[in-house]
């Protein structure tokens, strides 16, 4: 620990020396943050460091920044910074060299800056209520103020804070407090308002809708207005697609908008306080949170990395306090503008990330075979990096190597890729084996007919039939067969449980054991596309305990409620009809289990259909049995069901309270024991 603080002190001293002399701090220390990715199950897991904190820019020449609001890196590598606190635009290099200062005496509070390919500099000035267009020398070319179009809104102010410009010169401007969307202005005729772009949707929930529907005008006026959120920042890529980030939108925090304003991206992750977004060089996108977390995603929103973090006051390089902009240069270095620290953090990609970017580029260009080489190197560094496994599987699929594609898709939990590869493998199998399969089916049918004929003529199965007739006389076997009859005829079957001594403990318990076996087998050994548990994770004892506890609770609570409501069911009868009601599950689960191994995503509805029929059948059997065994009317049955559910909830609450209290008692006893041991040690 002492060496740790010595190292930090040395870094700070070095920083002071370099800042006073150069304005750029070069860092070679270990990253002060961890890098995470998302695995195929949607869980965050740590991976190799993707980007290293390379340097920190605190000034350009002799000019320091003051609460900078935005930043843009041009194609020539120059950095343009909206130095908000000093009301100017700083133009410099990544080495801290100062090239130019623009807008002094003209700008008021520049909050956004963008540079076009022809070197024109656009500045969003909030307090000036205008967007200024400068040439490379800093001369004002155009000034765009509030649009005069009535479509803009007469009552709305024009407070531009961020902007981007496409190749046609059309400006996309985020205005503070304008909830209508991004303001789209054409440069023609001194600035023509084209409309609003990429408007967010107002959130609506059922409770709010009902509350507003039954409220008076006066009550509705006092409610919080339900209006769309205003985007916080935006970026544009080489294809002209607009990226936006908005607070409070959860998985729509990040959007990739086409020319029609439709979102094309579905992110794996979101941040509560997104601050900036930037388009990458490999059809990827970067998002930065206000607290310094940096997210890198591919063009479909799949998370590649998240790293960085909030500086807790230790002033460690690579951590931020108030991010306002993120940019990426041609070498994939990331630049983070920190308004609170008035500095720029520079992150350099690691070898691992460079290989992944190379694979992304080759894959996006359709060069699938070439992409396998860098992907192989990535997997040599981290074989559990699911995105690389997924990309490798897709590359093999394009090469029509479906076996390898299937293997990598399973490793990465790529269900879509697995389905596509399995479809092709299944088609190939059917082409080569369909004739053989038909011959086997015909042969089995012939054998069945021959055996049936020989049994009728020669009685070859008479011994087996006699054995079966004797077995059916056994009470347990007879009750097991009766469960099948109950499944088909629940009303008559319930009468047998209530009046004909069909209630028992043995047969229902056997059915319960079969149910648990099928449940466990289906849960852990079903087809890949249907599996909902992580590979290699088995919690069989927990599963068995859950089934037993749930059935015991339902039986006990239903018995208590039925007893109070003059029901005729005993504990044995109730236990019997609940177990017998599981017969549809026992009969149909093998069907869904087999289907899970032979269907693709396109045929998943077959399994869903079987499951809906199965669960609906179980529910109908349980309700009818409850009604008939207890001799209830339909209304009384509904009442008992509601009371049973309520009783189960109360029982659950009691168990939870007892558990919490016991945990506190156990913790108290452990603390006393530890104190006694500690004192005896002295």
What's the short story on this structure?
The protein is of the alpha+beta class and 682 residues long. It has 17 helices and 28 strands.
Q: Which percent bin holds the helix content?
A: 40-55%
**Secondary-structure content class:** alpha+beta
How would you characterize the largest beta sheet? 5 strands, antiparallel
Mean pLDDT over the residues: 87
Computed over alpha carbons, the radius of gyration is: 35 Å
- What's the helix count? 17
Strand order of the largest sheet: 1-4-28-27-26
Residue share in β-strands: 15-25%
The count of strands amounts to: 28
- Low-pLDDT sequence parts: 1-29
Shape: elongated
Distance between the termini: 28 Å
Essential attributes:
682 residues; 17 helices; 45% helix
Topology:
Blueprint: H1 2-21, E1 24-26, E2 35-38, E3 44-47, E4 51-57, E5 59-60, E6 63-64, E7 70-73, E8 79-83, E9 88-92, E10 98-102, E11 110-115, E12 121-125, E13 130-134, E14 140-144, E15 160-165, E16 171-175, E17 182-186, E18 192-197, H2 206-214, H3 217-222, E19 233-236, E20 242-245, E21 254-257, E22 274-279, E23 285-289, E24 293-297, E25 303-308, E26 323-328, E27 334-338, E28 343-349, H4 351-364, H5 368-381, H6 386-398, H7 402-412, H8 415-458, H9 462-472, H10 475-488, H11 490-499, H12 506-525, H13 540-564, H14 571-580, H15 583-596, H16 604-629, H17 634-681
Antiparallel strand pairs: 1-4, 2-3, 4-28, 5-6, 7-8, 8-9, 9-10, 11-12, 12-13, 13-14, 15-16, 16-17, 17-18, 19-20, 20-21, 22-23, 23-24, 24-25, 26-27, 27-28
């Amino acid at each position: 620990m002492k060496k740790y603080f010595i190292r930090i002190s040395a870094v700070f001293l070095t920083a002071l020396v370099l800042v006073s002399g150069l304005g750029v701090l070069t860092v070679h220390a270990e990253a002060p943050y961890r890098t995470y990715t998302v695995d195929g199950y949607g869980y965050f897991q740590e991976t190799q460091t993707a980007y290293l904190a390379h340097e920190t820019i605190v000034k350009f020449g002799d000019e320091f920044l003051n609460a900078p609001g935005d930043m843009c890196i041009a194609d020539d590598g120059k950095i343009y910074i909206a130095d908000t606190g000093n009301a100017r635009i700083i133009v410099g290099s990544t080495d801290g060299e100062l090239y130019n200062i623009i807008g002094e005496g003209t700008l008021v509070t520049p909050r956004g800056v963008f540079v076009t390919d022809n070197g024109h500099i656009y500045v969003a000035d909030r307090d000036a209520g205008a967007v200024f267009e400068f040439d490379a020398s800093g001369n004002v070319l155009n000034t765009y103020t509030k649009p005069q179009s009535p479509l803009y809104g007469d009552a709305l102010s024009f407070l531009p804070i961020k902007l981007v410009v496409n190749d046609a010169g059309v400006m996309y401007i985020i205005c503070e407090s304008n909830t209508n969307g991004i303001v789209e202005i054409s440069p023609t005729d001194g600035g023509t308002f084209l409309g609003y772009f990429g408007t967010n949707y107002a959130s609506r929930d059922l409770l709010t809708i009902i509350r507003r529907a039954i409220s008076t005008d006066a009550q509705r006026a006092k409610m919080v207005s339900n209006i769309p959120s205003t985007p916080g920042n935006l970026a544009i890529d080489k294809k002209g697609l607009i990226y936006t980030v908005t607070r409070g939108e959860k998985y729509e925090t990040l959007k990739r908008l086409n020319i029609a304003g439709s979102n094309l991206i579905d992110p794996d992750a979101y941040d509560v306080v997104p601050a900036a977004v930037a388009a990458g060089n490999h059809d990827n996108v970067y998002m930065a949170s206000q607290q310094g977390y940096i997210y890198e995603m591919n063009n479909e929103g799949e998370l590649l990395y998240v790293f960085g973090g909030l500086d807790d006051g230790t002033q460690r390089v690579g951590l931020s306090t108030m991010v306002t902009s993120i940019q990426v240069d041609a070498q994939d270095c990331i630049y983070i503008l920190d308004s609170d620290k008035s500095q720029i953090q520079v992150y350099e990609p690691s070898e691992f990330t460079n290989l992944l970017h190379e694979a992304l580029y080759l894959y996006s260009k359709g060069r699938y075979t070439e992409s396998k080489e860098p992907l192989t190197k990535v997997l040599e560094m981290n074989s559990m990096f699911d995105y690389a496994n997924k990309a490798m599987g897709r590359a093999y699929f394009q090469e029509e190597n479906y076996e390898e594609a299937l293997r990598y898709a399973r490793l990465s939990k790529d269900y879509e890729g697995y389905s596509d590869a399995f479809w092709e493998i299944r088609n190939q199998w059917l082409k080569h084996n369909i004739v053989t399969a038909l011959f086997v089916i015909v042969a089995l049918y012939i054998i069945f007919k021959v055996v049936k004929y020989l049994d009728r003529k020669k009685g070859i199965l008479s011994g087996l039939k006699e054995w079966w007739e004797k077995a059916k006389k056994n009470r347990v076997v007879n009750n097991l067969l009766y469960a099948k009859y109950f499944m088909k005829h629940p009303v008559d079957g319930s009468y047998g449980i209530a009046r004909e001594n069909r209630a028992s403990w043995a047969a229902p318990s056997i059915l319960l054991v079969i149910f648990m076996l099928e449940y466990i087998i289906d849960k852990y050994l079903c087809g890949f596309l249907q599996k909902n548990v992580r590979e290699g994770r088995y919690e069989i004892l927990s599963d068995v305990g859950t089934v037993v506890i749930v059935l015991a609770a339902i039986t006990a609570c239903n018995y208590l409620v039925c007893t109070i409501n003059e029901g005729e069911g005993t504990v044995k009868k109730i236990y019997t009809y609940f177990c017998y009601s599981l017969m549809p599950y026992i009969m149909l689960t093998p069907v869904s289990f087999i289907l899970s191994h032979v269907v693709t995503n396109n045929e998943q509805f077959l399994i869903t259909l079987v499951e809906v029929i199965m669960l609906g059948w179980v529910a109908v059997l349980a309700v009818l049995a409850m009604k008939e065994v207890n001799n209830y009317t339909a209304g009384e049955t509904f009442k008992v069901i509601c009371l049973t559910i309520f009783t189960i909830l109360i029982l659950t609450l009691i168990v939870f309270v007892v558990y919490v209290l016991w945990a506190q008692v156990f913790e108290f006893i452990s603390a006393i024991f530890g104190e006694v041991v500690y004192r005896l040690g002295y």
